[in-house]
Amino acid sequence: MSIKIENLTHIYMPRSPFEKVALDNVDIEFESGQFIALIGHTGSGKSTLIQHLNGLLKPSSGKILIDDVDITEKGVKLSDIRKKVGLVFQYPEYQLFEETIEKDIQFGPRNLGLNEQEIDKRVKRAMAMVGLDYETYKDKSPFELSGGQKRRVAIAGVVAMEPRILILDEPTAGLDPKGRDEILAQIKSLHQEYNMTIILVSHSMEDVAKLAERVVVMNRGKAILDGTPSEVFKEVETLEEVGLAVPQVTYLARALKKRGFAISDEIFTVEQAREAILKVLKNN
Ligand code: ADP
Fold first, then answer.
1. What EC number(s) has UniProt assigned to this enzyme (predicted)?
2. How far apart are CA 17 and CA 179, in angstroms?
């Protein structure tokens, strides 16, 4: 299942004094099974882009083809798109509202018009996929949970619709380090074990370096860089020009190299840095 974004432009409040071109002729193809990170300064167009991918926003011009079906055409049902593309908003736990976790997760699949048996199956599967034990949690109120757990329930609600493509907008925002690690591990497992295509909007270059296979950088409504984390994080100057940075360990490696240490400046994760520094120490 692929997503092809062709010449996508989105203008908010067109022909008004508040007109804003949020996406400007964007052309991207996301292949099935990839783990893609979408990065960019606030206001660069990330949210606008991802809201087009599940039909929440309509383009001002351009097309979005999912499995070669143009979802921007009239007559395409939103429920059909959402069976394929799940979108987890920022702070999704604010949208939890049912009295039990089970009921909350049932909401999405029920809206797809599935029968009770299928809904039940999907709720159990979705809870397992996000690491919540069904019997322990099903009758609890979502509001009794920790921040990280609440967020997992919200993600399970989207996962229960069994999309092949899962888009997450800043899924670790506002969580403590333990909650962050848990959520990221779950997302990694959705990708690796269940082969979901993941599009992750993130401000954490460390998370991006650790998880993504491909990084797309947005600036002023355009995709300005697109490549593997190594390819993108090599472009330190370009990233800094658009208000972004490379992972902290990359700066460290570059500083060490500048001081004459024989260390690669293509170091993007703490693990890579650890190995490279140990090697330098051993050789000295
Ligand atoms: P990001 O997710 O990267 O922060 P957005 O897609 O939210 O970027 O915003 C892109 C641009 O569109 C920004 O200039 C923002 O102010 C503007 N924008 C976003 N949403 C709206 C809206 N509902 N109405 C008008 N302008 C908007």
1. 7.-.-.-
2. 43
Q: What is the mean pLDDT of residues 170-186?
A: 90
Nearest C-alpha to atom 22 of ligand 1 is from which residue? 12
- pLDDT surpassing 90 at residue 150: yes
**Chain segment 12-58, per-residue pLDDT in tens:** 999 999 999 999 999 999 999 999 999 999 999 999 999 999 999 99
CA of 276 to the centre of ligand 1 (A): 41
Q: Is the model more confident about 67 or about 10?
A: 10
Ligand 1 centre to CA of 41 (Å) is 11
Nearest CA to ligand 1 atom 13: 43
Among protein residues, the one with the nearest Cα to ligand 1's atom 21 is 12
What domains sit in the chain, N to C, each tagged with a CATH number? 3-246 (3.40.50.300)
Pocket test for ligand 1, best of 18, 20, 168 (most atoms within 8 A of CB): 20
The CA distances from residue 220 to 3, 12, 41, 210, in Å, are 22, 14, 9, 26
For residue 167, which of 176, 179, 155 has the smallest C-alpha distance? 155
The answer to whether the pTM exceeds 0.90 is: yes
Q: Which of 19, 26, 48, 53 gets mutated to test ligand 1 (max ligand atoms within 8 A of its CB)? A: 48
- What pLDDT, in 10s, does the model give residues 98-147? 999 999 999 999 999 999 999 999 999 999 989 899 999 999 999 999 88
Q: 22: CA distance to ligand 1 center in Å?
A: 6
